[in-house]
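It is worth pausing here to work through a concrete case rather than discussing structure prediction in the abstract. The textbook approach is simple: state the sequence, then state the predicted structure, then interpret. We follow exactly that order.
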Amino acid sequence: MKLPTIYNVQLVAIIATLGGMLFGFDISSMSAIVVTDQYIEYFNNPTGVIQGAIGSALAAGSVVGSAVAGPLSDWMGRRDSIMFACLFWLVGTAVQVATQNVGQLIAGRVLNGFTVGITSSQVPVYLAEIAKAEKRGSIVIIQQLAVEFGILIMYFIGYGCASIEGTGSFRTAWGTQFIPCVFLMLGLPFLPRSPRWLAKVGRDKEAIETLANIQADGNTQDSRVIAEWEEIQTVMQAEREAGRGWRKFLLNGMWKRTLAGMSVQAWQQLAGANVIVYYLTYIAQMAGLTGDVAMVTSGIQYAVFIVFTGIMWLFIDKTGRRTLLIWGALGMGFCHFVVGGVMGAHSTYHPEGVGNPPNGNIVIAVNKGAPANTVITFSYLLIVVYALTLAPVCWIYAAEVWSLGTRATGMSLAAMSNWVFNFALGMFTPPGFVNITWKLFIIFGVLCVTAAAWFFLLCPETCGKTLEEIELLFSGPDAPHPWNTRKGDSRLAAEIAAVEARRREKTEAGEVEAVPSVGEQEKV
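Step two, the predicted structure:
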């Protein structure tokens, strides 16, 4: 018996982005736990490189997952590659729940990271390929919202479990990671396959029907369906002529797309927001907040994250990607400079660690009053700017810039870039807090300013254009300079009008305009 298929794009996105919730769960599975007495005692107060290894194990697994995601997705499809990834999540979560030492905990997080590497790269690809051009941003941003909801939910689960005595506190918290994975696995069989992937593997009839069900309530003769199908076919023919293998990521202007997709993901990490997202509990303790106050303060940050990404969900397709990337990087840089400057001017050094018992990862205490309040305020403000700009836009942009033949592997390369730098920063940040303290934020401030210049010079505007139109933005020497590109100006409306005009002419001549049959396309 064939399962019913869901074609409502918003509902499809909600189910698919449970993969993003897995990401969020694993991020904050450590945030609320690392400062608890149970964790510190059981794992012998891990600090510096050891805590960095635990924190960055997720990213290490994600690098591997991202590396295999593209070929895997091209072979079995976007939807089924996500299902395959879920199996590793179940095993990784089981290993974490049963952990007996640091090595086993790292192994479990690496396995979970493998899943996150696949889902973080292929869920945006899947959503970009089923969404209408004018709604693509608001669909793909649901992935970011799912990540943030996962972070918030898991954080407060960890916070609540902190009251459980002994190892049951973190084992219970980590065990709840099974829940979103099970719901995702139950929902995936009801989702349609990507029509662009179906076209790529030669299943044209199914691709046309799926495209029509998504775009036009099943009407295969709808003008938009015909126009979009013709664009897909034109691009596929061009890609067949472009050759195979890794050459296609570098030749004929593709290097520009490869550079744009991979660099925008690298800058998302180098902008330093994850220092706040992962370790706001540390920053709160530096500012003199302890106990429940520090934990709740950190938890509110995650709620703020969701609220402002939710606000951007309403406007993401009305605001240019370039605009948000450039101004977001500058805004985050300003916040980093303020936090670092205040810490440097108004703090005391405690080499033995801050807190009772001392936490070896926190070696400076910001003076109470205005300095401490300023640090907390601008940490929050940095997250607000990040939630409105780089957090959602980097994933959207990286999913948009690739051609049909390179999208799955290209997005896996972009995600791998994200996770390589995530891993590096995960290893660097805890020792950075210990060894260079407040200067860590100055470094990230400089990187943010550099990112803004990079976005201005090398990232053309993709908002409001079909995935096939974005081809023209990277089409060799004739491509416009990035700073001369504007949002919208889609040619799809003109192509739909051309289809309708052609249809009228054929109707007057007694003919019928239709999507070509599979056999006719093979003849072409």
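Step three, interpretation. The chain is about 70% helix and 0% strand. The chain has two domains: 9-206+235-472, 496-524.
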